Amino acid sequence: MDLARFDCHPDDGASQERCEARKCCWRLPMQQGNLTEKHRTNFQDISVPWCYYPSDFPTYSIVSNETTDFGQRIRIVKSQTTFMPNDILDLTVDLIYETQQRFRIRIYDSVNKRFEVPLNVPVVEKKADMTDYEVKIAQKPFAILVTRKSTGVTL
Q1: What are the φ and ψ backbone dihedral angles of 93, each rounded to 5 degrees?
Q2: E strand or H helix at 76, and its extent?
Q3: What residue ranges define each of the domains in the chain, with the CATH number in brackets?
Q4: What's any GO biological process attached to this entry (predicted)?
Q5: CB neighbours of 115 closer than 8 A, spacing ≥ 6?
Q6: Exposure string for 138-154, b = 16+ CB within 10 A, e = fewer
Q7: Which of 93, 125, 140, 151 is the most buried (most CB within 10 A)?
Q8: Rounded to an integer, what distance in angstroms lies between the CA atom of residue 101 and that of residue 99?
Q9: Cβ(63)–Cβ(77) under 8 Å?
Q10: Among 81, 61, 76, 141, which residue's Cα sits nearest to residue 111?
């Protein structure tokens, strides 16, 4: 399905050769041949990606999910590296239910400590009792969907 495509080459200079070097799929839209240059540019902006991840592209999946005092700690792993430099195969995801209105997601390398920007953020030791957001987690591929309860808006 075209709408389910996820852009594998969002940076400038995408070509069939570069796309396929990333082990991705390449397909120009069939309608492009009938468009003027002006419309081709506009069409490209609203079109589905021409270089997109195949359905069997390596993704993260959950290996553990535990409840913590601040919310949840999830460990996700990917079975193989991709074209990305310094690909990290083992990540930890902290879901921190800070307040009724504030939810924080922290993703970090499970094995190697890496530099973190020294920001002053609230230290939450206890999960908020009542929240205005709902958090859903997909197992494979790993995904987090956060929805505002009061409005139904996906955050």
Answers
A1: -120, 120
A2: strand 71-78
A3: 1-55 (4.10.110.10), 60-129 (no CATH)
A4: carbohydrate metabolic process
A5: none
A6: eeeebeeeeeeeeeeee
A7: 93
A8: 5
A9: yes
A10: 76
Tokens of 72: 């949840």
d(CA 51, CA 17): 10
Angle at 86 between CA 83 and CA 139, to 5 degrees: 75
Q: What does the angle CA 101 – CA 99 – CA 114 come to, to the nearest 5 degrees?
A: 105
- CB contact at 8 A, 139 and 59: no
User: HSE-up of 131 (CA within 13 Å, CB side)?
Assistant: 19
For the record, the structure tokens of 91 come out as 């990540």
Contact 40, 32 (CB under 8 A): yes
Tell which residue, 72, 69, 59, has the closest CA to residue 136: 72
Burial of 8 (0-12, 13-18, 19+ CB in 10 A): buried
